[in-house]
Design goal:
By secondary structure, the protein is α+β, with helices and mostly antiparallel strands. It has two domains: 3-111, 2-Layer Sandwich (Phosphorylase Kinase, domain 1); 115-340, Alpha-Beta Complex (Aminoglycoside 3'-phosphotransferase, Chain: A, domain 2), CATH 3.90.1200. The chain is built from twelve helices and ten strands. The chain has a five-stranded antiparallel sheet, sandwiched between helices. Strand 1 (25-33) and strand 2 (39-49) form a beta hairpin. Helix 4 (129-145) crosses helix 8 and helix 5 (165-180) packs antiparallel against helix 6. It starts with a helix and ends with a helix. 29% of the residues are buried.
Length: 343
């Protein structure tokens, strides 16, 4: 039995128990995205209730042991709370933190028929871009306007008496990751952040997505917008979210969208964005660490051809993120340049 067939059979047994239906079938299971961390599949669930056949298209998302997000239970709770507050995300049917079922923690949620907002952008004419950007930015503004106390989970609690809570959490997290994976080359940049944090007291706490970009927004067939991938969601300064999105536009060739993004955010929220440099730098470091961890994955190192292919794909992103970091800090990382052949 191959890997996909094994997933299909385990899913059948798991959902048969959940639905109390021995006749439940799983069909058309397909890996429909090549995410660097999570494995994501679509499939059909078919079972009978009162002689009526029920067919549902669902999504299976599986999380690796080395996952840097907050985990499946956190993501489930965030999504459930967002739904209660009227913010559109896919409905999660089941989640399981145990590895013995599928070998990894997983989540099963509804499949939203449609396309990503990124697809819309790629097909849009120049005169259509402003309206798409306004829709995109409006979603972020709506998210940031929610009462974060109703969305937060045990992993997103804050100290409201500490004006540097957001920056302290980011620095502590970076220190923890670099220590865990022995990434000593980032020490000078982390010291730069520690020196800069005094200039960044929290201006506006909010629940933030932390990976808010057009690929994570699904435009349903009725034009409703659904935001996916909440594994990094947390409570932080809104600038943390804005800077991350701006950074992603920059490194993926969409820097021309940033002026519109900033304008619409300020117009729609009624707030000035302010200085983003601290959060831009943390976005760059976080991506560099994430991408180098993917390259250092032991499974890939066992397959040198696949490893070189991955490096070739990731190298432009690494180069862009590294240049972005240098532009904002004037700090070069010789060990990093040597390791990955960057300039």
């Amino acid at each position: 039995m191959n890997y996909l067939e094994n997933i299909k059979e385990v899913l059948r047994k798991y959902l048969s128990d959940k639905r109390d239906s021995v006749s439940l079938r799983i069909e058309d299971i397909t890996q429909f995205t090549q995410a660097l961390e999570t494995e994501i599949y679509s499939f059909l669930e078919i079972f009978t209730i009162d002689k009526k056949e029920i067919i549902s298209k669902l999504v299976l998302r599986m999380y690796p042991k080395s996952y840097l997000g907050f985990g499946v239970k956190h993501e489930y709770n965030i999504m459930q709370n967002l739904l209660k507050e009227g913010f559109q995300v896919p409905s999660v049917l089941f989640f399981n933190e145990k590895e013995e079922i599928l070998g990894k923690p997983f989540m099963i949620m509804e499949f939203i028929e449609g396309e990503t907002l990124n697809d819309k952008f790629s097909k849009a004419s120049p005169d259509q871009i402003p309206n798409l950007m306004k829709q995109f930015t409006s979603l972020m503004v709506n998210l940031h306007s929610l009462d974060w106390k109703k969305i937060t989970t045990g992993k997103t609690q804050i100290d409201i008496n500490n004006p540097y809570f957001a920056t302290d959490c980011i620095i502590d997290n970076l220190c923890s990751i670099t220590e865990k994976f022995n990434n000593k080359e980032y020490q000078a940049t982390i010291e730069w952040l520690q020196d800069q944090k005094v200039n960044y007291p929290v201006e506006n706490y909010s629940i933030i997505h932390k990976d808010f970009h057009p690929l994570n927004i699904i435009v349903a067939e009725n034009n409703s917008l659904f935001v996916i991938d909440w594994s990094q969601a947390r409570v932080s300064d809104i600038r943390d979210d804005i800077a991350q999105t701006s950074f992603l536009f920059n490194i993926f060739g969409g820097s021309q969208l940033n002026p519109l993004f900033f304008k619409y955010y300020e117009d729609l929220s009624g707030n000035s964005i302010g200085d983003l440099k601290f959060y831009e730098v943390t976005s760059a470091i976080s991506l560099l660490i994430f991408l180098t961890l993917q390259i250092g994955n032991s499974d890939l190192n066992e397959n040198q051809a696949k490893l070189m292919s991955i490096i070739q794909i990731l190298n432009p992103m690494l180069q862009s993120a590294y240049n972005y970091l240098i532009e904002r800090t004037n700090i070069r990382i010789p060990e990093f340049e040597t390791k990955l052949g960057l300039k």
